[in-house]
């Protein structure tokens, strides 16, 4: 198929949604599809057969575009409209694959060019807006209204998790839905390693590790406060935090200092995705303290695939993928999260048991071949769907 894929991110870079988009492109390329990608001006080019990347105009004062809602993304999304319109007037696409908020641009192309689209739903835009700016809660029904229209107008919806699939069901009960869960980013899964990171950081004892951005919804405050409480009961542990913008790192360094745990906490900043397997191989416990959101953090799949036990909050963001047989789940409170930490720190046999179960879960249900099979199933359905076919013919005959 000839596909227009809209990715409103700095593509490519080693973080959440761009990694998911990269997996999409791998599958599309392997299928033999011809794909034009529209992404922001920032990011690294990737090279796959049949894939061409088009970028929005370079605005010199817009750099380091963050994940989540921001004024920088608003400007880049506006510029994306013109890049998309230029492409659809010059090419005969059969399908638009719209990631996140680009679905509203896809609604424009459907209206004027009769192009069917898939809504690739990595998060609830309505919920995301309110979580980042709580003052908007009073008008959240407006965001939900537009999200509902985007779902209803889509030929199919590809939510990233069960919670979002439930939202789709609520918006449009008969909509075609294929859940495209994220997958592990580990290619080389190592069992154990006493390598460079421990020596570099001079860490003895149990190592806990967090990987990801340091935005508030990730629960870093909960993590640090819980670690401080846990260290009152055992001092045989260190916490390593990988990722985060400089401003966030500085903020949490200050917090760690005031909590009295700075000697036991290491902030390493962003590291290449290619090093993730090595880092996870060296740790003993992985942590996901997220306190907000519905979608499962992408890091969870790599965490579990590493064979290391995961300590996570017992919220739907986690429980739609894991349970207490393959993870240590606790209430999102400092006391309970600290209690879970201490249990894992002090019980090596429990760590092995939970870690092995988590790895088995990923290999059975959340591997790249499973993701590939689901996406192929969706595209095969679209090719056979009569409505899509009629729309294709109508557009091609113009």
In short:
The chain is of the alpha/beta class. It contains 16 helices and 12 strands.
Description:
This protein is of the alpha/beta class and 398 residues long. It has 2 domains: 211 residues, Rossmann fold, CATH 3.40.50; 170 residues, Glycogen Phosphorylase B (Rossmann fold, 3-Layer(aba) Sandwich), CATH 3.40.50.2000. Helix content is 47%, strand content 15%. The chain contains 16 helices and 12 strands. The strands form 2 sheets. The chain has a 6-stranded parallel beta sheet, sandwiched between helices. A 6-stranded parallel beta sheet has the order 9-8-7-10-11-12, with helices on both faces. The protein starts with a strand and ends with a helix. 43% of the residues are buried. The mean pLDDT is 91.
CATH C-level label of the largest domain:
Alpha Beta
> What's the tally of helices?
16
Q: In CATH terms, what is the fold-level topology of the largest domain?
A: Rossmann fold
**Beta strand count:** 12
Gross geometry = globular
Q: Sheet with the most strands?
A: 6 strands, parallel
Distance between the termini: 18 Å
Enumerate the strands of the largest sheet in spatial order, edge to edge or round the barrel. 3-2-1-4-5-6
Q: Kindly give the count of domains.
A: 2
Enumerate the spans where pLDDT stays under 50 for 5 or more consecutive residues.
none
Proportion of residues in helical segments:
40-55%
User: How do the helices and strands follow one another from N- to C-terminus?
Assistant: EHEEHEHEHHEHHEHEHEHEHEHEHHHH
- The Rg value, from CA coordinates, equals 22 Å
- The amount of beta strand, in percent, is 5-15%
